[in-house]
From TrEMBL:
Residues 206-290, 305-442 form the Phosphoacetylglucosamine mutase AMG1 domain. Its EC number is 5.4.2.3. This is Phosphoacetylglucosamine mutase. Binds 1 Mg(2+) ion per subunit. One of its GO terms (molecular function) is magnesium ion binding. Residues 459-531 form the Alpha-D-phosphohexomutase C-terminal domain. The active site is at S68. It is an enzyme of class 5 (isomerase). PROSITE patterns: PGM_PMM (PS00710). Belongs to the phosphohexose mutase family. Pathway: Nucleotide-sugar biosynthesis; UDP-N-acetyl-alpha-D-glucosamine biosynthesis; N-acetyl-alpha-D-glucosamine 1-phosphate from alpha-D-glucosamine 6-phosphate (route I): step 2/2. Pfam families: AMG1_II, AMG1_III, PGM_PMM_I, PGM_PMM_IV. It comes from Lentinus brumalis.
């Protein structure tokens, strides 16, 4: 192919017309909206993925069809770059541009411009691998995506129904196949083997691990968790809950990681299952977020979120680098966002370098790459650990001088295999957490007591135009609307241990308010005062002002 296959594109594009009056945007998590609205977007994303692959010399590009923790009727799509990472930021704009071309002819014009501006060599091969979660709208959207691949003559591999992290893994495994950096066998089976083999080595010789309850959010995580349980055998008994992937309306409904984190409550479906002291965790709808929790002896709920996971894991890795005699050569660092609980930031920054970045996995991931070992987690439970290429090299060539050093070194090497380094991965993170708990002989109680969470509250404010809100300092301060930050500062000063910030959401048409304070009632009050301030500041209709805003 030396020029665009215009006829093939035209013929298929006409079957996926874009309705007028809708505007699509490739945001923090790709395109995401009601599933039935996405048909034209899928077709165009199929074409774009093929072009991205050609631009990168035929490297395989991933396409994941999912709306993660969103309600079941939603769906979405995002692209994965060759190393298993999120799509390069500059291409987000190209994706948005193609998705919004109003007609087939306009689409062709946009494509021609893209090919020319980015100097895409159309004679290169196009290779893609794609998958979807369990949403009912998935199959039709996949068909539309496949039309996009077909129009471009792409070599397309269907990975079926699987989790987002497996798709990221596959992309990296395919692109490193047969090289010295091979990431593992390029199959779901290869993924399960890699994780479970490393896990078994890491917990060998430790006391029996008590059963773990997993809330699968009635999503695709249920399928993978069941396969994983088979690979793990009796090294860790998994009790799978919320596995109703075929029940309409069940996905993410009163269950899953987002429900638990947002409502700070046990999923009601687990109340008769979970025994006091027993650990449980929730995955989200595409199994890339993880939240742990337990009930204490009085039946009180305790949440162990992404910040707690980061604290647990980072301290363990630091100890291993010390025991291996590598602590002067390998520096461990943490990456958080403004949503990290103030308690966690204090605890971590007394021990390690901590960087705060804007919301969104790509920001965390890139910042974590600057450390020898970078631990990043969003408070909502999305995160992973990155080992730099130099660190991996050091681990593979280092000569330990004592048996203790050798043991610690092996643990570090096995950790690099149990951890999915391409992206946050609920099942991989779960195994990682279980390794640390087993090594530390911790139950949820000891883990929880690493530091105390400050009471906090997240509130959404619906405004006419969220783009009025602009931030700086990793989203911790507002620069626009002018003057609002000063009012906020004045308010926050009145609360002991108070902290609050306001930012426009990247995934929903709202402005988010986060507040924390030393005591619960004060955190709530501060959040609702800030929400009220924001609402009034941008001229919100007094008749529609939510009654809880102060
Ligand atoms: C407060 C919060 O949880 N925000 C989430 C949410 O982003 P917003 O930009 O806040 O809508 O979705 C993102 C994508 O899943 C995730 O990265 C982020 O952490
Ligand atoms: Mg998700």
């Amino acid at each position: 192919m030396t020029s665009l296959p215009v006829d093939a594109i035209k013929a298929l594009a006409d079957q996926h017309p874009k309705p007028p009056n809708v505007v699509f945007q490739y945001g923090t998590a790709g395109f995401r909206t009601l599933g039935h609205a996405l048909d034209p977007v899928m077709f165009r994303v199929g074409i774009l993925a093929a072009l991205r692959s050609k631009r990168l010399d035929g490297k395989t590009i991933g396409v994941m069809v999912t709306a993660s923790h969103n309600p079941e009727p939603d769906n979405g799509v995002k692209l994965v770059d060759p190393r298993g990472e999120m799509l390069e930021a500059a291409w987000e704009a190209h994706a948005t541009n193609l998705a919004n071309a109003p007609t087939t002819d306009a689409l062709i014009v946009a494509l021609e411009a893209l090919v020319q501006n980015l100097r895409i060599d159309l004679s290169k091969p196009a290779r893609v691998v794609y998958a979807r979660d369990t949403r009912p709208s998935g199959p039709a959207l996949i068909a539309s995506l496949e039309d996009g691949f077909k129009a471009m003559g792409a070599e397309a591999r269907n990975a079926g129904v699987t989790t987002t992290p497996v798709l990221h893994y596959l992309v990296k495994a395919i692109n490193t196949k047969g090289t010295k950096d091979s990431y593992g066998d390029d199959s779901e089976e290869g993924y399960l083997q890699k994780l479970s083999t490393a896990f078994k080595k890491l917990v060998a010789g430790k006391p029996a691990i008590p059963p773990l309850v997993i809330d699968c959010a009635n999503g695709v995580g249920a399928i993978l968790a069941e396969k994983l349980a088979k690979h793990l055998g009796d090294t860790i008994p998994l009790i799978l809950q919320n596995t109703a992937i075929d029940t309409l309306g069940a996905l993410n409904n009163a269950c899953g990681a987002d429900y638990v984190k947002t409502s700070q409550k046990l999923p009601p479906s687990l109340s008769s299952v979970l025994k006091p002291g027993q650990r449980a965790c929730s995955l989200d709808g595409d199994a890339d977020r993880l939240i742990y929790y337990y009930l204490d002896d009085r039946g009180q709920f305790h949440m162990l979120d992404g910040d707690k996971i980061a604290a647990l894991v980072a301290a363990f890795i630091v100890d291993l680098t010390k025991s291996a005699g590598l602590d002067d050569q390998i520096q461990v660092g943490i990456v958080q966002t403004a949503y990290a609980n103030g308690g966690s930031t204090k605890y971590l920054s007394e021990r390690l370098p901590v960087k705060c970045v804007p919301t969104g996995v790509k920001h965390l991931h890139h910042a974590a790459e600057h450390y020898d070992i970078g631990v990043y987690f969003e408070a909502n439970g999305h995160g992973t650990v990155l080992f730099s290429p130099d660190t991996l090299e050091k681990l593979s060539t280092y000569q330990p001088s004592t048996p203790a050093q050798s043991t610690a070194l092996n643990h570090l090497i096995n950790l690099t295999n149990v951890i999915n380094q391409t992206v946050g991965d609920a099942l991989s993170d779960m195994l990682l957490v279980e390794v640390v708990l087993a090594h530390r002989s911790y139950t949820g109680v000891e883990w929880d007591s690493l530091y105390v969470d400050l009471p906090n509250r997240l509130v959404k404010v619906v405004v006419a135009d969220r783009n009025l809100f602009k931030t700086e300092d990793a989203e911790r301060r507002l620069v626009s609307p002018p003057g609002l930050q000063a009012k906020l500062d004045e308010l926050v000063r009145r609360y002991e241990g108070g902290r609050a910030f306001v930012r426009p959401s990247g995934t929903e048409d709202v402005v988010r308010v986060y507040a924390e304070a030393a005591v619960r009632a004060q955190a709530d009050e501060l959040a609702f005062r800030v929400a009220g301030l924001v609402y009034d500041e941008v001229g919100g209709d007094p008749a529609k002002r939510p009654s809880e805003f102060l």
